[in-house]
Structure prediction request, 683 residues.
Amino acid sequence: MNYPSLKSHWHANASAITASYQEGKASFLPFLLPELALELTTSQVIQALSSRLGRGLVLDALDPQQTIPSPLAGLRTTNWIKRTNMVGINVRTIQNFWNIIKYMLTVPEAQQSVHLLPIWEPGVVASLYGMASWNINPEFFSQELYEAYPHLDTVEKQLKAVVNLLHATGRTVGMDVIPHTDRYSEIVLGNPRHFEWLQRRDDRITSHRANLHEEVEQSVFRFLREQGPARDGIDGPANARDLFSPDYPESARLELLFGNPPDYGRRAQRRGWLMKHLYKDGFEPVPATMGPPYRGLEVDTSEKAKTVDSEGHIWREYKISKPQEMSRVFGPLTRYKLYERLNDNKDWEIDFSKPRHATWDYACQHFYLIQQEYNFDFMRGDMSHVQMRPEGVPAQADNYYDLHKAVRAHVRQAKPYFGYFAETFLVGPGFIAYGNEVDHLEQADADSTLGDLQSMVVGSPKFMQNFRWYLDILKGRDFAPNFTVMTGDKDDPRFDEFYLAGNEARFFTALFLTDMPSYMALGFECRDPHPTPAPNEHYTKLYVFRISEGDKATRGPFVFGKNALLFHRLSRLRLAAEQILPQIISADTHWLLPPDATAATRVIAWTQAARPQYLFVANLDGNEPAVNIKIPQSKGPEKMPPLYPYFSTHQEKMKAEPLFFNGKQYQLDRLEGGEGRVYMWGQ
Prediction:
């Protein structure tokens, strides 16, 4: 199997495969390569969707004035997200919102949820995680969709139509909730009081007092008086106090400072002017940090930490004064100021007993409005691992314990099914956050979490130990760790070693562990192995931002992998899942060979707890075959019928003989490296 033959197979069989999809015989277009899916015309996509869903429903979905109900409408709990199989999409890798629909034609309904990486207008280095405003990213506008449907003439209308169509196909759709913005975002500059500020002169912080935002507001007002409003014919308040009063609408303030939202060039220009105006006064938002001790900043005086812009302004990076192993400073970002400070912030200490209610309300309401406008079903909590209390996770957590918890609760008043998928990596206590991360996730009301299996070699001792631990968490805690295959913001050369082998077993396990959620980023299905680093254009992480120079630069569109063998095997696996999963989708797992935390063996096997129908076996060693495998019988009062082969990731055809059973164990002679198999009790 090679890449040209996959293309030829699609072109030769496109009509028959599409007809099968339109008639409801398949939930996706199997063997359609993602890069070929993006070449489908809008008319082809609409015809396929209309034949399957009904033209009336598709036309309703394409009307941004209408809202297609979520598949979860009427559900009162968030338990669904603890079992869902999720696909993550960095829209920049496929260029626009409309291409989401094209790509999802290649994904089966067994992967029910779609997570869209941040969709907002980006700031410095165009990082998706550095929100420059609450406006939707204009680069995701599809000219093709607009030409076919001229009423979809804004990126906002196109996003609404795309979420509608995803809902019409039975998908749930998620957005990011980000506890920070670009340091010089419109959000920050238009609302200084919701953020923390410092004043710098040369290479020294001269002030970081608690209410420094009051001086910043005065400076912003002086800018407005000097430069005038961004649009002619509008007048603003007479003083800074009124300009930043809660009674003065934020929309009016942003229009005064920056202009109309569709005027991207003008707004960027005004933002740059205001940033330089604040520079003259020495004012800067405090950069976001990660990892204990979080607090205590100083200027990094090294030459590499100094930048001189085209006008001769000297900008400095910062570092944590007393760093620990995971201490990080994110120079382009600033975090919401959610609590008051102790002792006027003299020692950079936070008073967690005094939440700043207006800031909490501001963030919660804005994310709520986004959810309402586009009808999102869940949120991914970016940097959910942040827990800044030095004493660790408190015994009790109120509504002001964690911003993600607060946003979840705010949205759930209207949408009880709104789930919270947390970005944490399940590391040891005190390493990336103060206290125990597992305790923190429960206190923050997380429904599921990303985990870190994607950052480990499949079958390695570290992988096996963590996999087994995740199953313990799944059984004993209130949230569910994901069996994560790959993430769009960790697919870069540093992680190549994790995908050299065993990818079939990864995906096999992710799909068929019905009581454990999974996450897979776009591009995994055909990702090439990279024994040595590939060009940057082959990594999704390097499209989270836009850098034109240096070792993270990209110089063209994202390039899908050409791993024909993996794509063919996963396509067959997805087709098998179409037949199997509807029968066992709600089943709990009964382990026959659970992950061995000692990694002495790498074969796992499981079936269904209540009514066993299928046996799943996988060799998590991606390189070496497993031989002479003994699988214990499924305990139960009834004698089980013979086990017959049903599917193998590595074999197109399997011998029809049942597995040998000695009365206690099933005998499996050989399982190839990374191979997954399905057996069925009875024929």
Notes: The longest strand covers residues 626-632. The chain has a mean pLDDT of 96. Residues 182-351 form one domain.
